[in-house]
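S.,

Sequence below, as promised.
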Amino acid sequence: MDHGADHGDGARDAVERGAGPVDPFDPPGVAWQRVSPRLATSQRVSSTIAAAPVVVVLLVLAVLLTWWIAIGAAVVAALWAWGWWLTGRQVPAWGYAERDDDLLVRHGLLFRSLVVVPYGRLQYVDVQAGPVDRRFGLAKVQLHTASPDSDAAIPGLPPEEAARLRDRLAARGRARLAGL
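The prediction came back faster than expected:
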């Protein structure tokens, strides 16, 4: 008697059929689009702009007051270095895919996330770019729905792709909303 089939264990059945385990973060048949690798450089420059003044101030205070403050500078520098390395690992994990009825956005390595945004739920689509992102030719597409839990963002897109995606998603959202 096959107990796996009695309990409706689809993952076990798929493995037994040779289909491999089911990955909830990688639906079958989805062609993922990647964000630009320049996103890593942009995020690293932003973190350097934030961390460098803190380290310099702490080092000056350590010289003027007490050397113990230098420990704070070392901690900030170590966190900055860890963030630098982590950014290089996280950026390739970003991806998005347009399907017929929804948009998929995934990111994360250790804490993975897959957001499914039905086009009919889109209220509006933003395109944003700060000064560092603009310097590297990047923009972020922000999707807004009625539920804040289903909002999604796609950073690290070339401006042309961000504009194309914004217009396409807005049009699909209007078409799906009109059908409700």
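The mean pLDDT is 86.

Coffee later?
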